[in-house]
Amino acid sequence: MAEFLLLVGTYTRREPHVAGNAEGIYTYRFNTDDGTLHHMATAAGIKNPSFLTTDTARNTVYAVSEIADLDGGRTGAVASFALDQATGTLQPLNTVRSQGAGPCYVAVDGTGACVLVANYGSGTVALLPITEGGALGEATATFQHQFQPGAGGINTARQEAPHAHSITLDPDNRYALAADLGTDELRVYAVDPSVPTMAPQTTVALTPGAGPRHIAFHPNGVWLYVINELDSTVTLCDYAADTGAVTPRQRISTLPADFDGANTCADIHVHPSGQVVYGSNRGHDSIAVFTVDSATGVDGPPATPPKGARRATSR
After folding, report:
1. 72: helix, coil or strand?
2. Which residue from 287, 291, 293, 288 is spatially nearest to 307, judged by alpha carbons?
3. What is the pLDDT of residues 281-291, one digit of tens each?
4. Could you please report the per-residue DSSP string of 83-137?
5. pLDDT below 70 — which residues of the chain?
């Protein structure tokens, strides 16, 4: 029998899109043999810990506080906790400003020197240093996303402003890629964990109205996959690890051809084998499963199908 700790982030107060009646961060023991969950502990007191992650040793948990009114200012927060792996309890370390409203994504760099956070509400990204013991310092770099001159989101209900939805480090820990749902762009930042700081590198335009949300790298490091929330697609991109250059190459629907209801996409993951990509559908309420071709990246019907491409599996 294999068991793992499972940490669940939640909304603790009512927001426009959620009921918000949870207590905080829940810790469970997950049994992989029978799929059962055993509740171990609940960390209360943090507002809307909707997204969280751990350090590489899994001794420290970092959680966003997806709010917009910390200390009366237009910002949310990122909280750090010491994790007791035996009991599942979380001991608060500290809380710092996320440098923007509605933080929705947090990631730890591979050296454990810093945390990166994406703020959906204000369209900003920030780097927060990790201090001794796992606590967080105040941001050493913050960047405000903007529309390109003369441009604007075509989905007026969701793309009225920049909305940074995630920030993902590449496998070499040299660049961080931020997916902005509002501007339909990937923004690439060069990261220097030794300082720690980051700096803008390049901006990559995706399909107008797509609404890029989350990013996942293939184990080979030369492909990455972007799940697009608004048009329910996955975009395959080629990635140059030496420069951080991203080149979109293929786009495929996450939905069956006969589905005509409302849907938005959320998360995306690549199986450790590199043979399968998973994307989640909200509305169709399903997981789209794509088989990966070792020569082309993802099998599927792109606008111009590569030679030998086959239909991806979606179920």
Report:
1. helix
2. 293
3. 999 999 999 99
4. E-TTT--EEEEEEEE-SSSSEEEEEE-TTSSEEEEEETTTTEEEEEEB-GGG-BP
5. 1, 298-315
